[in-house]
Amino acid sequence: MRVAVCQLNSRSDQAANLASAYGLLSSAAAGGADLAVLPEYVDYLGTAAGLPDPEPVDGTVGRFFADAARELGMWVVVGSYHERGPDPDRTFNTCLVFDDGGGLAAIYRKIHLYDVEIPGRVSYHESSSVAPGTDPVVVECGGIRIGLSICYDLRFPELYRRLATELGAQVLVVPAAFMLHTGRDHWEVLLRARAIENQCYVLAAGQIGEHEPSRTCFGRSMVVDPWGVVVAQAPDVAGVVFADLDPRRVETIRRELPSLANRRL
Predict the structure, then answer these.
(1) pLDDT of amino acid 21
(2) What digits encode the pLDDT tens for the residues 201-242?
(3) In 3D, which of 187, 115, 192 has the Cα closest to residue 160?
(4) Sheet of 230-233: strands edge to edge?
(5) Mean pLDDT of 176-185
(6) pLDDT band (50, 70, 90) for residue 119
(7) Which residues have a catalytic role annotated?
(8) What is the torsion angle, in degrees rounded to the nearest 10, for the CA atoms of residue 74, residue 79, residue 85 and residue 90?
């Protein structure tokens, strides 16, 4: 399977964001990708006051990417968008997966919410405006089982262990808008750790650059193989990087170093 991770700079103009995302997906399709992964909040990354009305799964954003997947003949992981939530004050942070015919193949709602206070650096409480999801999700694409997650989920290894061992994931997807001050120290380390400990490929698509209000995302989108080797990494600009996944490599590593089979807890 040939995959593409798309690095984007979403801002406060939803129409412009969708157009930029389509351009990256078109580049992914032209490069022969069977599956492309977009970052977290591909629809809007700006001030709360400017957020367009959240939509259901079959709203404007969902239909846009369903059409894109069908037109380009490629699976598309819409890293996340603002889904209409359980009450007027909170959305879901939702990942949608469309198959190459434009059919909705999976929905994952972010479980772990970014509630962080770092004096002098960041004060952010995602749970004040986002409701948590509850269920891990794996979707099968071309005979490969893909586990879904979003951004802050990356810091919770128990989610990925469940995706790999209970739900059979061979690939883990991490769309993100990872903050610069943590991303420069933790992003690659955590991605490689999730790959190594679960013996899975990891596909990480990040937002890059400045976003309103006063938010900077780290970028460095990448693909990591099940041995923890970074096989593709984006430079610090919007764009697309490619990698070829071989499920036999997952099988070989799990057979030769059977850490998943040897676990005791």
Answers:
(1) 98
(2) 999 999 999 998 888 999 999 999 999 999 999 999 999 999
(3) 192
(4) 138-141, 144-148, 171-176, 201-206, 222-224, 230-233
(5) 94
(6) confident
(7) 40, 110, 151
(8) -160
Report the Cα 102 to chain-centroid distance in Å: 19
d(CA 77, CA 202): 13
Query: What is the three-state SS of 119-155?
Result: CCCEEEEHHHCEECCCCCCEEEECCEEEEECCHHHHH
Q: Provide the 10 A C-beta neighbour count for residue 253.
A: 20
Structure tokens at 235: 């430079």
What residue type is 11 in one-letter code?
R
- Cβ atoms 167, 145 nearer than 8 A: yes
Nearest alpha-carbon partner for 205 in 193, 222, 191, 190: 222
Q: Tell me the two tokens of residue 52.
A: 């367009």
pLDDT band at 43 (very low <50, low <70, confident <90, very high): very high
Q: pLDDT digits over 133-142, tens only?
A: 999 999 999 9
DSSP string, the chain: -EEEEEEB---S-HHHHHHHHHHHHHHHHHTT-SEEE--TTSS--S-GGGPPPPB-TTSHHHHHHHHHHHHHTSEEEEEEEEEEEEETTEEEEEEEEE-TTS-EEEEEE--S--EEEETTTEEEEGGGTEE------EEEETTEEEEE--GGGGG-HHHHHHHHHTS--SEEEEEE--BHHHHHHHHHHHHHHHHHHHT-EEEEEEBEEEETTTEEEE---EEE-TTS-EEEE--SSSEEEEEE--HHHHHHHHHHS-HHHH---
- Whole-number Å distance between alpha carbons of 131 and 243: 34
Q: How many CB atoms lie within 10 A of CB 185?
A: 10
Q: Is the pTM of this model over 0.90?
A: yes
